[in-house]
Give the backbone structure.
Amino acid sequence: MIRTLQISLFIILFLPFQVLSQPSPSDFQFPSSYQPLGSGARASGMGGAFIGISDDATAASWNPGGLVQLEKSEISIVGSFFRRTEDLQSDSSNQYGDQPVNYEGLNYFSLSHCFSFLQRNMVVSINYQNLYNFDRDWAIQIPLQFETPGLNADDMKVDFASDGNLSAIGLAYSVEIHPNFSMGFTLNFWEEDISKNFWETKTNYSFKYNTATVEYMETQESKYEYQLDSGFNTNIGFLWQISPRLTLGGVYKARFTSDISQKSVQIKHTEQRIIPTDTLTTETKIFPGSDEYKLAIPESYGIGLAFKVTNLWTVSMDIYRTQWDEFIITTDQGKFSPLFALPSNEDFTFPDTIPTIKPTHQVRFGTEYLMLNKDQQMIIPFRLGIFYDPIPGKGSPDKAWGFSLGSGMSKPPYNFDVAFQYRHASNLGEDYLINSIQSFDMDEATLHTSFIYHF
């Protein structure tokens, strides 16, 4: 069961707190929340409080009901530069230090077209969104203890790396139902044929053990390759201009099930007798891809308010909920929660022993002020945001907070935006039975850049 869970759990972006114990994988924890939010430097600069605004092409990912606010057709592209560090606190003398995660690449691309039909304003767009990134590189040590008298062991050295992405192609449509009310939807296709959804993980571990006369070295290298074959879900949203200054927006992102296949597994196991040096045993196994899994992504929904203090100053607030109890992976051995590698309540004989997985509620505040330069026909925006973005946990979610800053330049027909976002969480994993690690702190820094061309 543990091996099956190991294969399955690596599909989660925020994945990847894998811990080895004497000497096979056992427990999992993830440091980054899997929150189905939108893209874009402008929204990021406002702390992600964008559901009630959604007036650019990234609305297809935030709230497609606001997409109809586009006055001109446009092409937009968003780049992302990301760094996360995790400071692990050990219950032994080991000092792990900061474990870094770095990523840079295309975050979002869209082509939007504005038109009128039956005296109604409409917008259609095609979008690419890179939602989840698997890049990771870990190096830790795990204490080993043997019950056999006279047998001693050094700490196990573990190196873990993963690489790959999950992305979706979206088709969005928004229509003006009334001058003060609009609706829209985005159809997201998670298909390997049209959007590369492939990733791999590599784990190497080694340790020495000895008796009074003999010393051994044991190493194992494993490589797993996965592919998300298919999946489909819908985002539905609305935008209501309650008054000239106050706007209310809402979005619902539907639950969906995706197909995942294990492409291949390679395992190389080596046992070497160092003292005396006369024995070497190496075993390599290669398994073709054959295992198939089903992953149920939970539904999520949110509501947002935007208020124009003046024509140049806007403030906004979002509340967003994700149903983590619906996050289930199905294997040939049953249904499990990928969050903790435990059976879901519905299939477990003693549900009281399974930790409660509660929904998370994000709260986000943002503001934007526009500075006009009439001589050069230019707008310089200044943006600020703060947010509470918890991480799902056993019982109550683990708390995580952050802030953001953003600016840019708008001069027709071009827009350029940049945003920096920081997120922090402390004492994660204290209620997890993770060998040798008591808890860890997390720091994330993200830089988004957006470029838009109107035509």
In short: The chain has one domain: 2-454. Residues 2-9 form the longest helix (8 residues). The helical segments are 2-9, 41-45, 59-62. The first strand starts at residue 17 and ends at 21.
